[in-house]
Amino acid sequence: MTVLVTGGAGYIGSHMVLALRDAGREVVVLDNLSTGFRWAVHPEAAFVEGDCGDEALLGKVIREHGVDAIVHFAGSIVVPDSVADPLGYYLNNTVRSRALIAAAVANGVPRFLFSSTAAVYGDAKESPIIEAAPLDPVSPYGTSKLMTEMMLRDTARAHPLKYVALRYFNVAGADPAGRSGQSSPRATHLIKVATQAALGERTHLDVFGTDYPTPDGTCLRDYIHVSDLARAHVLALDYLAAGGESTVFNCGYGRGYSVLEVIEAVKRVSGVDFPVNHVPRRAGDPAALVAGAGRIRETLGWKPEFDHLDTIVAHALAWERSLAARRQAAE
Ligand SMILES: NC(=O)c1ccc[n+]([C@@H]2O[C@H](COP(=O)([O-])OP(=O)(O)OC[C@H]3O[C@@H](n4cnc5c(N)ncnc54)[C@H](O)[C@@H]3O)[C@@H](O)[C@H]2O)c1
Ligand SMILES: O=c1ccn([C@@H]2O[C@H](COP(=O)(O)OP(=O)(O)O[C@H]3O[C@H](CO)[C@H](O)[C@H](O)[C@H]3O)[C@@H](O)[C@H]2O)c(=O)[nH]1
User: Could you list the residue ranges forming a coiled coil in this record (predicted)?
Assistant: First the structure.
Protein backbone atom coordinates (compact mmCIF):
# COMPACT_ATOMS: atom_id res chain seq x y z
CA MET A 1 0.00 0.00 0.00
CA THR A 2 1.09 3.52 -0.71
CA VAL A 3 1.14 6.90 1.04
CA LEU A 4 0.11 9.90 -1.06
CA VAL A 5 2.12 12.98 -0.02
CA THR A 6 0.73 16.26 -1.35
CA GLY A 7 3.33 19.04 -1.35
CA GLY A 8 6.11 16.42 -1.26
CA ALA A 9 8.37 18.67 -3.36
CA GLY A 10 8.32 21.34 -0.65
CA TYR A 11 10.37 21.85 2.49
CA ILE A 12 8.54 19.73 5.07
CA GLY A 13 6.94 17.36 2.55
CA SER A 14 10.32 16.38 1.08
CA HIS A 15 11.52 15.43 4.58
CA MET A 16 8.34 13.38 5.10
CA VAL A 17 9.08 11.47 1.90
CA LEU A 18 12.62 10.78 3.20
CA ALA A 19 11.18 9.52 6.52
CA LEU A 20 8.66 7.30 4.73
CA ARG A 21 11.26 5.84 2.36
CA ASP A 22 13.65 5.33 5.31
CA ALA A 23 10.81 3.35 6.94
CA GLY A 24 10.41 1.29 3.74
CA ARG A 25 7.01 2.74 2.71
CA GLU A 26 5.83 3.21 -0.88
CA VAL A 27 5.21 6.86 -1.69
CA VAL A 28 3.55 8.88 -4.44
CA VAL A 29 4.06 12.66 -4.40
CA LEU A 30 1.51 15.06 -5.88
CA ASP A 31 2.78 18.63 -6.21
CA ASN A 32 2.08 21.52 -8.58
CA LEU A 33 5.64 22.84 -8.10
CA SER A 34 4.36 26.34 -7.27
CA THR A 35 6.92 26.68 -4.46
CA GLY A 36 8.44 23.18 -4.48
CA PHE A 37 11.20 21.67 -6.60
CA ARG A 38 11.13 18.53 -8.73
CA TRP A 39 14.73 17.77 -7.67
CA ALA A 40 13.65 17.78 -4.02
CA VAL A 41 11.44 14.71 -4.56
CA HIS A 42 13.07 11.46 -3.46
CA PRO A 43 14.17 9.45 -6.54
CA GLU A 44 12.38 6.34 -5.23
CA ALA A 45 9.03 8.14 -4.88
CA ALA A 46 6.55 8.25 -7.76
CA PHE A 47 5.86 11.83 -8.83
CA VAL A 48 2.70 13.36 -10.30
CA GLU A 49 2.75 17.03 -11.25
CA GLY A 50 -0.73 18.35 -10.53
CA ASP A 51 -3.05 20.18 -8.22
CA CYS A 52 -4.45 18.83 -4.96
CA GLY A 53 -7.77 20.45 -5.88
CA ASP A 54 -8.12 18.33 -9.05
CA GLU A 55 -10.57 15.65 -7.87
CA ALA A 56 -10.48 13.64 -11.11
CA LEU A 57 -6.68 13.45 -11.04
CA LEU A 58 -6.72 12.56 -7.35
CA GLY A 59 -9.15 9.69 -7.92
CA LYS A 60 -6.92 8.32 -10.67
CA VAL A 61 -3.75 8.59 -8.55
CA ILE A 62 -5.41 6.99 -5.50
CA ARG A 63 -6.71 4.03 -7.53
CA GLU A 64 -3.62 3.49 -9.67
CA HIS A 65 -1.23 3.53 -6.71
CA GLY A 66 -3.46 1.78 -4.18
CA VAL A 67 -3.22 4.76 -1.80
CA ASP A 68 -4.28 3.89 1.76
CA ALA A 69 -3.13 7.08 3.51
CA ILE A 70 -2.87 10.74 2.53
CA VAL A 71 -0.45 13.20 4.11
CA HIS A 72 -1.46 16.70 3.08
CA PHE A 73 1.30 19.35 3.08
CA ALA A 74 0.34 21.23 -0.11
CA GLY A 75 -0.65 24.81 0.56
CA SER A 76 0.30 28.46 0.70
CA ILE A 77 2.25 29.41 3.81
CA VAL A 78 3.17 33.11 3.99
CA VAL A 79 1.11 34.84 6.70
CA PRO A 80 1.38 38.46 5.38
CA ASP A 81 0.51 37.26 1.85
CA SER A 82 -2.67 35.74 3.28
CA VAL A 83 -3.62 39.14 4.72
CA ALA A 84 -3.15 40.76 1.29
CA ASP A 85 -4.87 37.93 -0.62
CA PRO A 86 -7.33 36.14 1.68
CA LEU A 87 -9.41 34.66 -1.13
CA GLY A 88 -6.29 33.20 -2.76
CA TYR A 89 -5.43 31.53 0.56
CA TYR A 90 -8.97 30.25 1.13
CA LEU A 91 -8.87 28.81 -2.41
CA ASN A 92 -5.51 27.07 -2.16
CA ASN A 93 -5.67 26.01 1.49
CA THR A 94 -9.37 25.46 2.17
CA VAL A 95 -11.22 24.84 -1.11
CA ARG A 96 -8.51 22.56 -2.51
CA SER A 97 -8.26 20.69 0.80
CA ARG A 98 -12.00 20.08 0.53
CA ALA A 99 -11.46 18.49 -2.89
CA LEU A 100 -8.71 16.27 -1.48
CA ILE A 101 -10.86 15.17 1.47
CA ALA A 102 -13.74 14.47 -0.94
CA ALA A 103 -11.44 12.34 -3.11
CA ALA A 104 -10.30 10.43 -0.01
CA VAL A 105 -13.92 9.70 0.95
CA ALA A 106 -15.02 8.84 -2.60
CA ASN A 107 -12.15 6.38 -3.02
CA GLY A 108 -12.29 4.86 0.47
CA VAL A 109 -8.90 6.12 1.73
CA PRO A 110 -9.11 5.39 5.47
CA ARG A 111 -6.33 7.63 6.91
CA PHE A 112 -5.46 11.32 6.52
CA LEU A 113 -2.78 13.54 8.11
CA PHE A 114 -3.04 17.29 7.83
CA SER A 115 -0.40 20.05 8.21
CA SER A 116 -1.97 22.54 10.55
CA THR A 117 -0.27 25.36 12.38
CA ALA A 118 0.12 27.13 15.72
CA ALA A 119 -1.43 30.07 13.85
CA VAL A 120 -4.87 28.53 14.63
CA TYR A 121 -4.44 29.77 18.24
CA GLY A 122 -3.92 33.43 17.28
CA ASP A 123 -2.74 35.62 20.15
CA ALA A 124 -2.83 32.92 22.78
CA LYS A 125 -3.39 34.10 26.35
CA GLU A 126 -1.43 31.22 27.86
CA SER A 127 2.03 29.77 27.36
CA PRO A 128 2.70 26.93 26.78
CA ILE A 129 -0.36 26.50 24.56
CA ILE A 130 -2.21 23.19 24.89
CA GLU A 131 -4.44 21.70 22.20
CA ALA A 132 -7.59 22.61 24.16
CA ALA A 133 -6.68 26.34 24.14
CA PRO A 134 -9.12 28.69 22.37
CA LEU A 135 -8.87 28.69 18.57
CA ASP A 136 -8.90 32.27 17.35
CA PRO A 137 -6.63 32.79 14.34
CA VAL A 138 -5.60 36.37 13.58
CA SER A 139 -4.66 35.81 9.91
CA PRO A 140 -6.49 34.36 6.89
CA TYR A 141 -3.66 31.79 6.77
CA GLY A 142 -4.58 30.54 10.27
CA THR A 143 -8.30 30.64 9.46
CA SER A 144 -7.79 28.73 6.20
CA LYS A 145 -6.07 25.95 8.18
CA LEU A 146 -8.63 25.94 10.99
CA MET A 147 -11.46 25.57 8.44
CA THR A 148 -9.70 22.51 7.02
CA GLU A 149 -9.39 21.03 10.51
CA MET A 150 -13.15 21.55 10.91
CA MET A 151 -13.92 19.91 7.56
CA LEU A 152 -11.86 16.90 8.63
CA ARG A 153 -13.60 16.72 12.02
CA ASP A 154 -17.06 16.75 10.44
CA THR A 155 -16.14 14.39 7.60
CA ALA A 156 -14.64 11.87 10.04
CA ARG A 157 -17.97 11.86 11.93
CA ALA A 158 -19.92 11.10 8.76
CA HIS A 159 -17.59 8.71 6.91
CA PRO A 160 -15.09 5.94 7.70
CA LEU A 161 -12.12 8.34 7.57
CA LYS A 162 -9.71 8.82 10.48
CA TYR A 163 -7.43 11.83 10.65
CA VAL A 164 -4.69 13.52 12.64
CA ALA A 165 -4.16 17.28 12.36
CA LEU A 166 -0.63 18.26 13.39
CA ARG A 167 -0.26 21.88 14.51
CA TYR A 168 3.33 22.80 13.80
CA PHE A 169 5.10 25.48 15.78
CA ASN A 170 8.30 26.86 14.14
CA VAL A 171 9.77 24.29 11.78
CA ALA A 172 13.51 24.62 11.10
CA GLY A 173 16.69 22.72 10.31
CA ALA A 174 17.38 20.24 7.53
CA ASP A 175 17.91 16.54 6.93
CA PRO A 176 21.01 15.56 9.00
CA ALA A 177 22.31 13.55 6.02
CA GLY A 178 22.06 16.64 3.79
CA ARG A 179 19.44 15.18 1.42
CA SER A 180 16.94 18.06 1.74
CA GLY A 181 16.38 21.39 3.44
CA GLN A 182 14.54 24.67 3.10
CA SER A 183 15.24 25.73 -0.48
CA SER A 184 12.79 28.52 -1.26
CA PRO A 185 14.66 31.74 -2.12
CA ARG A 186 11.64 33.70 -0.74
CA ALA A 187 11.78 32.12 2.71
CA THR A 188 11.25 34.59 5.55
CA HIS A 189 11.81 32.27 8.51
CA LEU A 190 14.27 33.48 11.14
CA ILE A 191 16.75 30.58 11.15
CA LYS A 192 16.83 30.39 7.34
CA VAL A 193 17.38 34.15 7.00
CA ALA A 194 20.03 34.18 9.75
CA THR A 195 22.01 31.38 8.07
CA GLN A 196 21.87 33.37 4.82
CA ALA A 197 23.29 36.38 6.68
CA ALA A 198 26.05 34.20 8.16
CA LEU A 199 27.02 33.04 4.65
CA GLY A 200 27.08 36.62 3.31
CA GLU A 201 23.99 36.09 1.14
CA ARG A 202 22.27 38.92 3.03
CA THR A 203 24.00 42.05 4.24
CA HIS A 204 22.36 41.95 7.68
CA LEU A 205 19.49 40.65 9.78
CA ASP A 206 16.59 42.73 11.12
CA VAL A 207 15.20 41.95 14.57
CA PHE A 208 11.49 42.78 14.45
CA GLY A 209 10.74 44.34 17.83
CA THR A 210 12.70 44.47 21.10
CA ASP A 211 9.88 45.74 23.32
CA TYR A 212 7.85 42.56 23.80
CA PRO A 213 6.94 41.41 27.34
CA THR A 214 9.59 38.66 27.25
CA PRO A 215 12.88 38.28 29.16
CA ASP A 216 15.02 40.03 26.49
CA GLY A 217 12.21 41.94 24.74
CA THR A 218 12.19 39.77 21.57
CA CYS A 219 9.63 37.13 20.59
CA LEU A 220 9.80 33.58 21.93
CA ARG A 221 9.24 30.67 19.54
CA ASP A 222 9.35 26.88 19.84
CA TYR A 223 11.69 25.65 17.08
CA ILE A 224 11.17 22.02 16.00
CA HIS A 225 13.63 20.16 13.79
CA VAL A 226 12.01 19.19 10.47
CA SER A 227 13.25 15.58 10.71
CA ASP A 228 11.72 15.14 14.19
CA LEU A 229 8.50 16.56 12.75
CA ALA A 230 8.56 14.13 9.81
CA ARG A 231 9.08 11.19 12.18
CA ALA A 232 6.09 12.34 14.24
CA HIS A 233 4.01 12.04 11.06
CA VAL A 234 5.22 8.47 10.44
CA LEU A 235 4.21 7.62 14.03
CA ALA A 236 0.83 9.31 13.49
CA LEU A 237 0.23 7.09 10.45
CA ASP A 238 1.10 4.01 12.55
CA TYR A 239 -1.24 5.26 15.29
CA LEU A 240 -4.17 5.51 12.87
CA ALA A 241 -3.32 2.15 11.26
CA ALA A 242 -3.45 0.60 14.75
CA GLY A 243 -7.00 1.92 15.21
CA GLY A 244 -6.22 5.26 16.92
CA GLU A 245 -9.02 7.83 17.08
CA SER A 246 -8.97 11.06 15.09
CA THR A 247 -7.17 13.79 17.02
CA VAL A 248 -5.04 16.92 17.00
CA PHE A 249 -1.42 17.23 18.15
CA ASN A 250 0.78 20.23 18.84
CA CYS A 251 4.22 19.72 17.30
CA GLY A 252 6.96 21.47 19.24
CA TYR A 253 9.47 20.74 22.00
CA GLY A 254 7.76 22.82 24.67
CA ARG A 255 10.63 25.28 25.05
CA GLY A 256 10.86 28.83 23.69
CA TYR A 257 13.95 30.64 22.38
CA SER A 258 14.06 34.39 21.84
CA VAL A 259 15.01 35.95 18.51
CA LEU A 260 18.28 37.16 20.10
CA GLU A 261 19.06 33.66 21.40
CA VAL A 262 18.56 32.24 17.90
CA ILE A 263 20.85 34.88 16.39
CA GLU A 264 23.52 34.11 19.02
CA ALA A 265 23.24 30.41 18.14
CA VAL A 266 23.69 31.10 14.41
CA LYS A 267 26.72 33.31 15.13
CA ARG A 268 28.19 30.70 17.49
CA VAL A 269 27.69 27.74 15.16
CA SER A 270 28.82 29.57 11.99
CA GLY A 271 31.63 31.54 13.64
CA VAL A 272 30.46 34.64 11.73
CA ASP A 273 29.48 37.90 13.47
CA PHE A 274 27.05 39.35 10.88
CA PRO A 275 25.39 42.78 11.35
CA VAL A 276 22.05 42.85 13.22
CA ASN A 277 19.66 45.83 13.19
CA HIS A 278 16.91 46.38 15.74
CA VAL A 279 13.79 47.58 13.90
CA PRO A 280 10.11 48.04 14.90
CA ARG A 281 7.74 45.12 15.40
CA ARG A 282 6.45 43.19 12.39
CA ALA A 283 2.64 43.17 12.16
CA GLY A 284 0.92 40.09 13.52
CA ASP A 285 3.74 38.57 15.60
CA PRO A 286 2.51 37.15 18.94
CA ALA A 287 5.03 37.67 21.78
CA ALA A 288 5.34 33.97 22.67
CA LEU A 289 4.33 30.75 20.93
CA VAL A 290 5.46 27.71 22.88
CA ALA A 291 3.83 24.32 22.47
CA GLY A 292 2.26 22.37 25.26
CA ALA A 293 3.84 19.25 23.81
CA GLY A 294 2.77 16.47 26.17
CA ARG A 295 -0.06 14.93 24.13
CA ILE A 296 2.01 13.89 21.12
CA ARG A 297 4.73 12.34 23.31
CA GLU A 298 2.22 10.42 25.42
CA THR A 299 -0.03 9.25 22.58
CA LEU A 300 2.54 8.45 19.89
CA GLY A 301 5.59 7.72 22.07
CA TRP A 302 7.39 10.37 20.00
CA LYS A 303 10.90 11.12 21.30
CA PRO A 304 12.66 13.99 19.54
CA GLU A 305 16.23 13.32 18.40
CA PHE A 306 17.29 16.88 17.59
CA ASP A 307 15.88 18.93 20.48
CA HIS A 308 18.88 21.25 20.60
CA LEU A 309 19.01 24.70 19.04
CA ASP A 310 22.66 24.47 17.95
CA THR A 311 21.96 21.17 16.16
CA ILE A 312 18.98 22.67 14.30
CA VAL A 313 21.11 25.65 13.31
CA ALA A 314 24.07 23.44 12.27
CA HIS A 315 21.84 21.39 9.95
CA ALA A 316 20.21 24.52 8.48
CA LEU A 317 23.64 26.05 7.90
CA ALA A 318 24.97 22.90 6.21
CA TRP A 319 21.97 22.91 3.85
CA GLU A 320 22.40 26.62 3.07
CA ARG A 321 26.04 25.91 2.16
CA SER A 322 25.01 23.06 -0.13
CA LEU A 323 22.44 25.30 -1.85
CA ALA A 324 25.18 27.89 -2.44
CA ALA A 325 27.44 25.18 -3.93
CA ARG A 326 24.55 23.97 -6.13
CA ARG A 327 24.02 27.54 -7.41
CA GLN A 328 27.74 27.97 -8.13
CA ALA A 329 27.85 24.70 -10.02
CA ALA A 330 24.86 25.84 -12.14
CA GLU A 331 26.54 29.16 -13.08
N1 LIG B 1 7.22 25.97 7.50
C2 LIG B 1 6.58 26.15 8.64
O3 LIG B 1 7.15 26.67 9.63
C4 LIG B 1 5.16 25.68 8.80
C5 LIG B 1 4.53 25.90 10.03
C6 LIG B 1 3.21 25.44 10.19
C7 LIG B 1 2.55 24.77 9.16
N8 LIG B 1 3.18 24.58 7.97
C9 LIG B 1 2.43 23.89 6.90
O10 LIG B 1 3.23 22.81 6.40
C11 LIG B 1 2.95 22.62 5.02
C12 LIG B 1 4.24 22.57 4.23
O13 LIG B 1 4.93 23.80 4.41
P14 LIG B 1 6.40 24.04 3.83
O15 LIG B 1 7.11 24.93 4.79
O16 LIG B 1 7.00 22.75 3.46
O17 LIG B 1 6.07 24.91 2.54
P18 LIG B 1 6.56 24.73 1.01
O19 LIG B 1 6.04 25.94 0.29
O20 LIG B 1 8.00 24.42 0.96
O21 LIG B 1 5.75 23.45 0.55
C22 LIG B 1 4.43 23.48 0.02
C23 LIG B 1 4.39 22.54 -1.19
O24 LIG B 1 3.05 22.44 -1.67
C25 LIG B 1 3.03 22.64 -3.09
N26 LIG B 1 1.70 23.16 -3.40
C27 LIG B 1 1.16 24.36 -3.01
N28 LIG B 1 -0.11 24.45 -3.45
C29 LIG B 1 -0.39 23.29 -4.12
C30 LIG B 1 -1.55 22.78 -4.76
N31 LIG B 1 -2.68 23.49 -4.83
N32 LIG B 1 -1.48 21.55 -5.33
C33 LIG B 1 -0.34 20.82 -5.29
N34 LIG B 1 0.80 21.25 -4.68
C35 LIG B 1 0.76 22.47 -4.10
C36 LIG B 1 4.19 23.55 -3.38
O37 LIG B 1 4.66 23.48 -4.72
C38 LIG B 1 5.24 23.06 -2.37
O39 LIG B 1 6.01 22.01 -2.90
C40 LIG B 1 2.00 23.76 4.60
O41 LIG B 1 0.68 23.26 4.54
C42 LIG B 1 2.17 24.77 5.71
O43 LIG B 1 0.99 25.55 5.89
C44 LIG B 1 4.46 25.02 7.76
O1 LIG C 1 14.22 38.38 9.64
C2 LIG C 1 13.57 38.06 10.64
C3 LIG C 1 12.65 36.99 10.61
C4 LIG C 1 11.93 36.72 11.76
N5 LIG C 1 12.10 37.47 12.88
C6 LIG C 1 11.35 37.15 14.10
O7 LIG C 1 11.59 35.80 14.44
C8 LIG C 1 10.42 35.19 15.00
C9 LIG C 1 10.06 33.96 14.21
O10 LIG C 1 9.62 34.37 12.91
P11 LIG C 1 9.44 33.38 11.66
O12 LIG C 1 9.10 34.23 10.48
O13 LIG C 1 10.63 32.49 11.58
O14 LIG C 1 8.20 32.45 12.07
P15 LIG C 1 6.74 32.85 12.59
O16 LIG C 1 6.76 32.61 14.08
O17 LIG C 1 6.32 34.18 12.13
O18 LIG C 1 5.77 31.83 11.82
C19 LIG C 1 5.97 30.46 11.61
O20 LIG C 1 5.39 29.71 12.63
C21 LIG C 1 4.01 29.94 12.83
C22 LIG C 1 3.55 29.07 13.95
O23 LIG C 1 4.32 29.32 15.10
C24 LIG C 1 3.19 29.67 11.58
O25 LIG C 1 2.99 28.30 11.41
C26 LIG C 1 3.85 30.23 10.33
O27 LIG C 1 3.31 29.62 9.19
C28 LIG C 1 5.32 30.05 10.30
O29 LIG C 1 5.82 30.83 9.26
C30 LIG C 1 9.34 36.28 14.97
O31 LIG C 1 9.30 36.90 16.21
C32 LIG C 1 9.85 37.28 13.93
O33 LIG C 1 9.44 38.59 14.15
C34 LIG C 1 12.99 38.53 12.92
O35 LIG C 1 13.13 39.21 13.93
N36 LIG C 1 13.70 38.78 11.79
Answer: none
| Residue 1 Cα to ligand 2 middle (Å) | 37
Distance in Å, CA 48 to ligand 2 centroid: 31
The pLDDT value given to residue 134: 96
77: Cβ below 6 Å to ligand 2?
A: yes
Each residue of 192-242: pLDDT tens digit?
Answer: 999 999 999 999 999 999 999 999 999 999 999 999 999 999 999 999 999
Task: Clarify whether residues 202 and 149 are in a common domain.
Answer: no
Indicate whether 201 belongs to any domain: yes
User: Is residue 184 very low, low, confident or very high in pLDDT (cuts 50, 70, 90)?
Assistant: confident
| pLDDT attached to residue 104 | 98
Mutate which of 4, 12, 71, 249 to test ligand 1's pocket (most atoms within 8 Å of Cβ)?
12
25/149 same-domain check: yes
Same domain for 114 and 23, yes or no, is yes
Rounded Cα–Cα distance for residues 235 and 238 (Å): 5
Which DSSP string corresponds to 68-129? EEEEE--S---HHHHHH-HHHHIIIIIIHHHHHHHHHHHTT--EEEEEEEGGGG-S-SSSSB
pLDDT per residue over 90-108, tens digit each? 999 999 999 999 999 999 9
The pTM score is 0.97
Distance from residue 329's CA to the centre of ligand 1 (Å): 27
In ligand 2, which atom is closest to the CA atom of 222? 23
- CATH for 33: 3.40.50.720
Relative to the alpha carbon of 192, which ligand is closest? 2
141 is catalytic: yes
